[in-house]
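Researcher: We plan to redesign the surface later, but first we want a full-length starting point. Tokens attached.
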């Protein structure tokens, strides 16, 4: 028991003496620094019909935009979109969302950066 206590106290002392690294969660706790603003807003989603519809609309808009996505990948994305819509309508929300997200990933992975 004594050795465990010594070990934990040693770890705590080492942590207190370590200089904070940028982006380190304890940096703002150990020193009077301003908290940096989040790089991106946190988006919280739920498994709901509304989220299914939102994903489907986003996917449809992405498919309408001019793109360099090969025909085969577009067909795969359309097929997943149809499956996702059907699953959502049948109240298999998680499975539907999974298909819609997979379709978005296919399109995203096929995008080529424009110079």
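Model: Full-length starting sequence:
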């Amino acid at each position: 028991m004594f050795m465990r206590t010594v070990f934990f106290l040693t770890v705590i002392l080492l942590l207190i003496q370590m200089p904070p690294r940028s982006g380190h969660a304890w940096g703002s706790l150990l020193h009077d620094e301003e908290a940096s603003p989040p790089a991106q807003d946190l988006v919280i989603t739920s498994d709901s019909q509304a989220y299914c519809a939102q994903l489907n609309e986003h996917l449809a808009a992405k498919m309408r935009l001019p793109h360099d996505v090969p025909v085969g990948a577009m067909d795969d994305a359309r097929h997943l979109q149809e499956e996702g819509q059907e699953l959502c309508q049948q109240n298999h929300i998680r499975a539907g969302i999974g298909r819609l997200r997979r379709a978005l990933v296919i399109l995203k992975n096929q995008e080529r950066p424009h110079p």
